[in-house]
């Protein structure tokens, strides 16, 4: 029960930031940033609401669905400790949004702390006024990789 209240509280706080963002692109950028925080804090209830039931997650070691991603985060087999976001590009196409983040990810993976540079592609779809994540794909890049705006 406590986790449900925590998830609702976090969603309420996100809504305040969300409502202060004026454009759909800004709202999606805020949602993406919030998602990284939820992943770092293992906020499974909030992530379960955000991730579509058929969402896919593409990592360096494999591709899987929502339930496996939530299990990985909850168990800590991958702990997304910190995502330093260096650049964000958001494009909205009707009810679909694509986010490209250039990040340095510090994670704890199978007992080892690692730091990697990635461009992360996120795909969201708006349904009944709510955004759902459909895809999150990590692409390994050099630290000189740039996102064109």
From TrEMBL:
SUPFAM superfamilies linked: NTF2-like
Renumbered to this chain, the signal peptide range is 1-21
Instruction: Report if keyword Signal is assigned.
Output: yes
A Pfam match is DUF4440
DUF4440 domain residues? 33-133
Keyword Signal attached: yes
Alphabetic keyword roster: Signal
Output the superkingdom of the source species: Bacteria
Q: Which InterPro entries match?
A: DUF4440, NTF2-like_dom_sf
Q: What is this protein identified as?
A: DUF4440 domain-containing protein
Species name: Neolewinella marina
